[in-house]
Amino acid sequence: MTLTEPTPLTAPSPHVPERDGRREPEPFGPGSILWDDLGMYLSAVAGNSAFILQSMHPAIGTVVDRLSSFRADPVGRALRSFASVQTWVYGGQEAIAEGRRLREMHKPLSAEDENGTRHHALSAEPWAWVHLTGYYAADTVARRFSPEPLTPERERRLFEEFMNLGRILQVPERMLPATIADFWTYFDRMVADTLVPHRVALEVLDRMDKVPPTVPARLRPLLAPLSLTGGRLARFVTVGTLPPGARDKLGLSWTARDERGLRALATVLGRTAPLLPERVRYMPIAYRARQAARAHRRWQEALAGRPL
Region annotation Disordered: residue ranges (predicted)? Predict the structure, then answer.
């Protein structure tokens, strides 16, 4: 039985305030990119590709394979994941508590693969990889599905906010890349040298157009056409938003025609989403948080303008 640890990405800066080798995270609020973007349904369009990249990591794939509920309850697992992600950004101080809760929940999780290697969910590399694939997905959405070009300044802010999010999730500081260039060097190296065509990744792709197993038997024939159509579209977007190296490892084809189709779909979604009402555009937690923030601002303005 073996267990390996990763090489740190960066050394902590002596000029940055830290506690126990970790910079203190700050909750997100109005004005941040993640506050404006991560709560939109459109932001989840590359979420499946992030999960595929995660499950291609040998440690993550093994733990998910042995211990996750993704087979028995895929819809419930997805809903819980989305709720947790929304809490990271829109939860205020509750976001910090959610980061601690996730660490505690994953602390006992470990599993042994077929080669006798034991993998722990909280090992530094896989825990960081889960978070950093989220940045890859957010960057992909910003580049491919946003109606506005991703400017260097917005790219910088998105990166910095995601590194702060990593601290909320208690990713070790040494595993957070210092610059955008460092991230892409690390990401490309992980895709080329660490990721494998894990059976979990292949199984998730295969199940996308299938009716979830939790659907009652009497409803399955009714939902089968919807699952087939929606699942094929989801699989198409997932494959298209994976990096080419990951597609190659999974044996997935992607043609020039496919790329043109994805670009057309991205254009339609990117132009349509901003036109939708906020209640429809944002997920429930994000929508309520944005409402509450506006109400709080109006309350503060009323107090500031009261006669004295």
Answer: 1-29
